[in-house]
Design goal:
elongated, disordered C terminus, PHA_synth_III_E, PHB biosynthesis, Poly(3-hydroxyalkanoate) polymerase subunit PhaE
Length: 375
């Protein structure tokens, strides 16, 4: 009796530690993410705020002596302030579109084409093998084996998609021509890694409990179960649903329905990747045509088309990704974060590419408001 009591106390202690680990994971992840945002904010905005008072004082002086020369001096001073603050992350680009840039676009498109093709081949292989399993007799061991295969495939593809913006070739194109700072590209990758790590650590205990449950089921199914085995199974089942699944959603069962969902998801992914490849092939052909021209506006149009292609790829990935249950809740924050990233990149690129923005007056509306003649 004493031995059984000690075992129960040990199990209770393990459960308390498991709960504590889950809460620690949440707390640590929140702290890391908060620190990332705080550091980013201070690096970007603090220098700007420190320079604000000086610039305001200059506007007061300018209002007393409004001449073209003073406006020019104000603009020069503002440029210095900008270069020492926002210019660190948003350098004022002076893109010189040329043949070399288009060749880089073509090279990047070829790399992406090969990458997407490898994903298509892998998913088609998984689908073929899974269909063979489903056509045969029920085999829980095979279900488990190919469940792991599918999971690893999607994890690899997902990780690669998240890392694409931070790859050297992508950063070179976005940075040199579009003015996209490494700050955002690296920040997005770090946030994605934090999310992935948090998800893995939180769901780890849940997966371990399911493995224990499956092991006990296999033991009973062999026909050598004692009355105590059934009681142990019941206790384990209750504990699993009470302590884990009530918090993180319904159980994920290795069933025919799950494999059917995998196959359905694969059809969506294959269609999406093939559309990306088609778009990239068209972009490569367009780049080859434009390499024979020298009109800067033509290069701008091509770059805008390139940006829209990548933006659409990000959108289709999250819109078409089959996500249900707790996975859907976890994917939503990442979807919002990715949308913020693509919006920021698109807006910054558009701002730098529009000549009217780069040549806009430093103090718009001032002359019109006060009726001052500057010419």
């Amino acid at each position: 009796m004493v031995k059984k009591s000690n075992v129960m106390e040990e199990e209770s202690e393990e459960k308390r530690e498991e709960k504590q680990n889950i809460f620690n994971t949440w707390a640590n992840s929140y702290t890391e993410i908060s620190k990332t945002w705080v550091d980013s904010y201070e690096k970007l905005y603090r220098p700007w705020l420190e320079a604000t008072k000086e610039m305001i004082d200059k506007t007061v002086l300018l209002s007393k002596e409004a001449t073209p020369q003073k406006y020019m001096e104000f603009y020069d001073e503002w440029i210095k302030t900008y270069q020492n603050t926002f210019g660190i992350f948003y350098p004022i680009p002076a893109p010189q579109p040329n043949k070399e840039i288009l060749e880089k676009f073509i090279s990047r498109a070829d790399e992406s084409n090969k990458l997407f093709s490898s994903w298509i081949a892998e998913l088609e292989k998984n689908s073929r093998m899974t269909k063979e399993i489903l056509q045969g007799e029920q085999d829980p061991a095979k279900y488990k084996e190919y469940y792991d295969v599918w999971t690893k495939s999607y994890e690899k593809i997902f990780d690669k998609i998240l890392s694409l913006p931070s790859e050297e070739s992508t950063k070179e194109l976005f940075g040199e021509y579009g003015g996209m700072p490494d700050f955002y590209l690296e920040g997005f990758l770090q946030m994605s890694k934090l999310w992935r790590r948090s998800y893995t650590q939180i769901c780890g205990p849940m997966n371990e409990s399911m493995m224990k449950l499956s092991k006990k089921m296999a033991e009973i199914s062999r026909g050598k179960a004692s009355p105590e085995s059934y009681k142990e199974f019941y206790t384990l089942w209750v504990d699993t649903y009470k302590e884990i699944y009530e918090k993180y959603g319904k159980s994920t069962e290795l069933s025919r329905e799950m494999f059917g969902n995998f196959i359905k998801a694969t059809e969506i992914y294959l269609s999406m990747y093939k559309s990306w490849i088609t778009a990239l092939e068209e972009m490569s052909e367009k780049a080859q045509e434009l390499s024979k021209q020298s009109d800067p506006e033509t290069y701008n149009k091509f770059y805008n088309l390139w940006v829209k292609t990548y933006e659409k790829a990000f959108e289709s990935f999250f819109e078409d990704m089959p996500a249900v249950g707790s996975m859907k809740e976890i994917m939503e924050p990442l979807k919002i974060m990715t949308r913020m990233y693509t919006d920021t990149f698109t807006r910054m690129s558009n701002m730098w590419l529009k000549p009217r923005v780069r040549s806009a007056p430093a103090y718009p509306g001032k002359n019109k408001k006060r009726g001052i003649q500057t010419a």
